[in-house]
Write a structure and sequence with these properties.
Elements: H1 3-17, H2 33-47
């Protein structure tokens, strides 16, 4: 396995296990990343 593939797997593991989807962020108007993603997807559906 090359180092690029290892890096991809490590990043994926970090995102799926350690990244906090519930913590609010000031950069996205004090919403959690999960809330922001849901809002964004809903906006895409209504504008399409």
């Amino acid at each position: 396995m090359d180092s690029r593939e290892q890096a991809k797997r490590s990043i994926f593991t970090y995102i799926m296990t350690f990244y906090n989807y519930k913590r609010i962020h000031s950069a996205i108007n004090y919403m959690s990343p999960l809330q922001y993603e849901k809002m964004y997807i809903q906006q895409l559906k209504t504008t399409a």
